[in-house]
Amino acid sequence: MKLVKLIQCKCSETPPEQGIRVLQDEDGFYWLEPRVKAEGYRTPFIDLAELALAHDLTNIHVVTESAISIDVPITDL
């Protein structure tokens, strides 16, 4: 799997100076970075709306998007 985008989001639940980091893979799936750190790449989301719904986040919106290129080894999946 290859990660291709780092997305910084804000929502009503985050303090003004903080945000949520989301990763996107080459197939278009979204991964919540704190969840990846806790459990690995086990819970992909189809879009940001699904991710927000699963985590009770309201008014989620993208602040910045950055292109990245990170190959995730099979052992990390």
Report on the architecture of this protein.
The chain has helices spanning 33-39, 48-54; strands at 2-10, 20-25, 30-32, 61-71. It is α+β, with helices and mostly antiparallel strands. It has one domain. A 4-stranded antiparallel sheet has the order 3-2-1-4. Strand 2 (20-25) and strand 3 form a beta hairpin. The longest helix has 7 residues, at 33-39. The radius of gyration is 12 Å and the shape is globular.
Summed up:
It contains two helices and four strands. By secondary structure, the chain is an alpha+beta fold. The chain has one domain (2-71).
Task: Please estimate the helix content.
Answer: 10-25%
Catalogue the unreliable spans: none
The gross shape turns out to be: globular
The total beta strand count reads: 4
Mean pLDDT: 93
**Secondary-structure content class:** alpha+beta
Q: How many domains is the backbone divided into?
A: 1
Order of helices and strands: EEEHHE
State the distance separating the first and last CA atoms.
8 Å
> What percentage of the residues does DSSP assign to strands (E)?
35-45%
Largest sheet, in brief, is: 4 strands, antiparallel
Number of helices: 2
Sheet with most strands: strand arrangement: 3-2-1-4
The Rg value, from CA coordinates, equals 12 Å
